[in-house]
Structures
1.
Amino acid sequence: MTAFFSVRTLASWCLAGAAVCAASLAQADATLDKIEQRHAISVGVMLSGSPFGTIDPKSGEHLGYNVELAKGIGQALGVETQTVSVLAPNRVQFLQQGKVDILIANMQFTEERAEILDYVPTPYEEVGGAALIRKGAGITQWADLKGKPVCVSQGSNFIKPLQETYGAQIKAFRSQSESLLSLRGNGCVAAVHVSPTMHALLSEAEWQDFELPLPEDLIPSNSVIWLRKGEHDTQAKLDAIVRDWHRSGWLLELGERTGMAPSQALRDLHEQYRNAAPLAVQP
């Protein structure tokens, strides 16, 4: 009797342990289930300026390239889209803490970021950095920034090459707007941020005394959607959506419509996927 009880108890423990393990595995990749259950996806986006993202001063509506990408994801999944404004220093925390489901937040791929987050393998664009500099500063190449103060956002992937390759003195700010304010106040000789935003600024009257004199963007890198570690079902679903965007040419159209001039890398991806089978849902 005792032996039977022990075996039966041990079996129960094993079954319970297996159930716990199975539940843990399911929970490790539960984001897609949660999105479907609440019929909405929460997307962290950068609203630091055109063309990536802005806030309509009258309605408070989120606008711009990042926002349209987020809406495209929601439409392809058949759910509502909720965009959440994030900043460079807190965007990873927002994702890791579950405040957003995914990030479309001007985070280009780096090996360091991939160590703590997962990402959608197929990029949706390629973006590098551009240096906004006051006219007449005499800076004509990246090497001219050696020993000079350069303003960037905290957590920027441009910090490493600016320091290690070009010897710049980094001044990192919580937001892009703070970085640009320091540039206007002569707190630095250059502000380095994503190239499309820097080009957009030149069309504004307040930046008429500045220019983008360096001929090449800094470390052009893949723009990808970021997820929490282990979310492989969400990753696969989103990757199929991004590949279909390339197939249909929607990303090219979106770039032209929002002022995000399509890169050659984006055009190459369209050619790569244009003959693929389409998804059932299009943005």
2.
Amino acid sequence: MWEDFKKFALKGNVLDLAVAVIIGTAFGKIITSLVEDIIMPAVGIMLGGFSVEDWAYTFNGAELRYGVFTQSVIDFFIIAFSIFLVIRLFTRMKRKNDVPAEEEPEVLDKKEQLLVEIRDLLSKEKTGL
């Protein structure tokens, strides 16, 4: 059982996934900080100190803070859009690097060329063309 686990854990895919999760977590913290510490305060300044986090409804002493939920939804869309832009940038950079080289036409020697011709002739005989 231990050997099977070692084979599984040390496969390239599992290690790649682990690295991706760690980097994704760190990237998520950066984007969250960007949204919470830079973008949303700038939006608040442009709107004259307006903040949706302050929205609340009080009923019989219970406070329903729907502004915090609204702010979380706004943060989600900003974070999702930021990640979309980063992935799009990386995809474009990868496409530029992955330009396929032109394939050289296959050169057949005389024997191979003769075999191709025989194959084509036999195929024509079978189909009756």
3.
Amino acid sequence: MLLIENPSTDPAYNHALEEYLLKNLQEDVVMVWQNVPTILIGRNQDALCEYDADYVREKGIRVVRRLSGGGAIYCDLRNLQYSLIAPFWSGGGEDENPFLKFASPVVGALKRLGIDAEFTGRNDITVEGKKVSGNAQFRYGDRVLHHGTLLFDVDREAISRALRPNPVKFVNKQVRSVASRIGTLAPYVRMDVRDFMEYLKEQLMGHYGVRETCAVHQEDLREVLRIKRERFDSPAWNFGIRYRFTHRYDVRHPFGMIGYRLEVGRSLIEHAEILGDFFGDRDVFELAGRLKGCAIERESLRRGLEGVRVDDYIRGMENEVLIQDVLAVQATDAA
């Protein structure tokens, strides 16, 4: 495994570098890095519904869509990101959380500082019940990019005002905002964020037996900058194309928020999008395409999904659950 030294704080460059390393480097990779104030949008989310555009514009906060699924997060130079790139690992059993293997070394590093950290839920690290880290993954072939944020310190005003999550996310939950459920690591340690970054690097290097560190080579930089320009600097990627839909329906499942956007004409689905903070190993655009031409009727939807395993696109979802959700869309008012 290699430790990649990455001093950049440009979120578009940093995510382009992750993509390049995932798709082109054969060695396993660990990287610890930072972003300037940024809203990172999950791959499958409707970007403009996830943040306050006026506040973000006023404060000069960047908005970048990442490769991985999951929800929108705020990060800045008070916090840090880490990336691990390795062969895909689905766990020791059918129900094993695929995030656990990669998050465990980070939990261990916190515990060695005397912090009572634990991995909880589908993708979080918590301390005393407060979230200090969210993790996400993107699979490419037989390899996976696992990355996460560690909230060393936090600008609570920025998080509260910049992020605007769907209210459905908090249905039946005691917390009513993102800021109210997060914690920070700074109160538990006698170091600043830069020292903590160096500590985490050392811990991850020790865990993975890293013997070599390297910077991005000049011959690789040209390709990283191309990915940055064509994807992570692109409004089409970061914000997507917005359609007018006749029907919309948002629902929270244990595996994530799902938003359905349907254009229905002549009793058939003419266009569909599936949005949300879920995870999956295949592009959900393909799954949404299977709904095109279907009637909002159980047997028609079953035929449209024939040969499809929905869990490949939305991890944790069974085909019949998707069908039931689409049937529920019919009961909603036109958008």
